[in-house]
Amino acid sequence: MTYAPLRLEDYDISPTHGFLPSEPPLRRLPDPYYAPWEDIMDRFNQYLLAHHIRRLVRKMPVLSTEKLSTQAEYRRAFSILSFMGHAHVWGRNGAVSEPASEFLPASIAVPWVAVAEFLQLNPVVCCAGVCHWNWQILDDTADDLMDIDNLGTIHTFSGSLDESWFYLVTTAIEAKCARGLSAILDATAAVERDDMSQVTRSLHQIAYALGEANIILERMYERCDPYVFYWKIREFLAGWENMEDAGLPYGVLYEGVDDTDTFSLDNWNSLFRRFRKYAGGSAAQTPLLQALDIALGIKHFPTGERGPQSSVAEARNKLRAQGVPEPPTVNSYLVQMRDYMPGGHRRFLEDLAATCRIREYVLLECSDSLLHMGTASDPRVLLRQAYNGCVDLIKTFRDKHIMIVSRYIIAPAKNGPMSPQRVAVPESSKLMPPVAYMQAMAKQISRLQSGGRMGGDSLSADPTMYPQTNIAATLKSSEQPVSKCPMQNMLAANTRPKSVTVQVVSEAQDVGRLARKLEDGAVARGTGGTDAIQFLKQVRNETAQTRI
């Protein structure tokens, strides 16, 4: 097969921004036809906080996607439909006992599926929706426009700085590694020309990009708190595959798309087959790491299985005897994650795998005797060192990723929610007469007992977002005989409480949620539905074994 150089622009990849758009994503769809979507997004965090999302989404009209005209508009539509869709599934209406929603209303499902088909990826939250197409530049005059400290998010689920930072770390890594993508293509072309010095230079450029990626990844700890991520953010990023324990055993039904004539179905089994199961947002969905793996010949095998073990010499001899081998069985999860990438990016990975032979070139050029006897100035020694340097940096990146998963998922899950704490009575109560203050507090406690929440509307509280007053603990701690409402006793004694005990949701209330305490021996699954640590460790080890 004749070699044909790849061009990033042919795959909707930017030479300056990599897999990010060359221009900042739209912050609003220009056509007023889409005002029903944008009006919700204008106050998205407030609506989600007040548990209004499901009601508002159900009231929305089913809008056509025919008025979307540019790639940027389709990306904007996908991003905001992703936020509204996951808020509907996981956000609930506020009732403690209300489960995740198995049905996605047609107002979201129909346009979301249409937009996803245009962009050629699955209709679910993915890395592209929350990281690649969800950023803005803060200072247009900055020396480095894409520096992480000059970036902001457009939307988040929680409205927290922690969630913004979590997305921006990925966004900044994508931007900084754009030069690495160009260097991969340069190295691939140099291999075809047998230009060893250019291959080496390109590998050094790849290594520089990877070094920057490692530095940015380490900054995750600066502004994203593990507790906030696990208990307040992570659930919204989950999909509906392998989510039986979170209340979605069948997945989610996209109304208006897969449920035609639902009410005339003969049996439930027919309906269940129409449910869709998708993985949630995952770092495996970024094409960047997969492109680097392909470029350096790093092979990943099905989780729990070991690939063929051979020495460098055996691999080289086999390559000389048989030529470039057929692609081996690969990790099915990583291949599956390509369905969550835009179509152009997915095709780039496929075409890169068919043309890139950097590892094979290094293997053939660097003999065993060279590994032991070559001088530091030998071009082949420099080539091997440059190649191994890139592999080592990817391995280091994956080590850091494992540490992040341990701190942001494993540790919070094992520790459980915050322990009870003493909360002082607000100073503002001193401005009220004692009896009036007691009456106001009695009304609040009464609302809590009936499932409401402090200081808001009459909707019930979400136990993972709003700490609940532990009435039983308050009653137990009282030294006086008590009635049903402890405030009645305080009124009778004309006294004011010194403090109340606040405790977040119990483990029993966590049933049916993705964010919950992890029992001993239980598997910590990522938002993509996999055994996170097992998968990441195997990928890391396979990377280390690629050194020459």
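(the above was protein one; protein two follows)
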Amino acid sequence: MPAKMQYSHAARTVVEQHLRHESREKIHVVGHADSSLSLPLFAQSLAATGLVVDSRVQRNASLSRLYECALKHETGSVISSSGALIARSGKKTGRSPRDKRIVEETSSADDVWWGPVNKKLSEESFAINYQTAIDYLNTCTGVFVFDGFAGWDPKYRIKIRVVCARAYHALFMNNMLIRPTKEELEKFGEPDFTIINAGQFPANRFTKGVTSPTSVSISFERKQMVILGTEYAGEMKKGVFTVMHYLMPKAGVLSLHSSCNEGPGGDVSLFFGLSGTGKTTLSADPQRMLIGDDEHVWTESGVFNIEGGCYAKTIDLSAEKEPEIFNAIRFGSVLENVVYEETTRIVDYTDKSITENTRCAYPIEFIPNAKVPCIGDKPQNIVLLTCDAFGVLPPVAKLTPAQAMYHFISGYTAKIAGTEEGVTEPEATFSACFGQPFLVWHPVKYAQMLAQKMQQDKVNVWLVNTGWNGGAYGNGERIKLKYSRAIIDAIHSGELNKAEYINYGVFNLKIPTTVSNVPKKILDPSMAWEGSEEEFSSTISKLANLFHANFKEYADQATPEIIAAGPQVC
């Protein structure tokens, strides 16, 4: 492509000038020891991107240097009372899924699930975005490079290079990627994927396929991601996951948007769930080791975490409710968009005046019961979490393989009145594979791989409802956390494998007749319902029809067995 030839020529010129200059300035490179050295091979690799390589460039800078640069050059950056770096992400305080684009390329076009999640961008438009980002970075007084890994299993890990102009972004990715040792950094070589983050500079809205000043675009063929017009660091984290969500299934292993923990006996559980379902809370078990909180891959030998850190929500955080996360907020962590007291620098985690999406990124080693390396055996249990505000799904049900695929593809939970403007009654929301914004392949591909893994490894799959019981939101009560924990404990102890089950109506689910430390009445929503039989029948039929309507989008590629595993709609 002409654009590539142009970049290569420019890169060669920069490299030749850099290597010929006898008194050239050194690139500042920091491994585990804070030392500066000249690395011609690294310079060549970086210059091949079109970036001017000189003393502005800092590679894998130490935490102290990143703090210093952020405090000196980035407005709003301060050190919290606990030692974390507080940073501002600017106008954007969350991801911009409507501005995400995948480049339409011959090598990957037939693989991608095109539609509202994966919108097409031409190679020419991506080249424009790329050059815009590089040109911007070449004007910056400082450029940060972080080289790290995605994936704890050496067989499947990929090398990620992040190039950015904010110390906050470099520190964030230092925490979220797997940090290389000094020896690994010296032998890093060419990255497998490069993120060019010029988020401070807007995209050109007149570029074909770009519809706003924000553009987040990925080219699988060029192995590059370009960010323009958003400084929200989470775009990089989820960009890496999107790349892994494409590459891992292509390699025959299953990438998952899930948390994962391990029991004292080495038994591994995976937890899937959308926001508000209790995924973080229920997987953070003091009696079990945390493998990871968000992104994993299931291989022929077990499960590994993709990330080197955690990205936790901090709204309403307290030491009493979530002590592990609270205590992980210290020197080296990044707090995003939080409000603090000016004099003491104590953070007010209840303050939502900037955003409700306040977060903290920290290395996984900051969690005391984290398992490092973050690798576990094959899972024995999979928990699909939902928060059903209609009050008709059971607190726990054991799923058949076909039901597991159906509910995995559906990815159901519910919004409740008052959570969003205009929501006045329970509102169903579906996110395929419990992570639709990050899917690359069709959801059925992930579901079929899940079913194959379940069959091969003889895994139990459970649907656990942490939502309402006895009636819909406003009439019933939310299932107590202690009951949900007791259900998870019963799954892990093997109690539910030996339980007696009965069939549950419209959804055709197997529900246990008893669970230790859980009232028998709540296990069957039809028995717990406080209203009339007609109200219950009407409510469960309404939810069943919502499931049915949602699944029409995937029915063209789903097998008859998967379709039949859904609720029975009259």
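Reviewer note on protein two: Residues 1-39, 417-423 have pLDDT under 50 and may be disordered.
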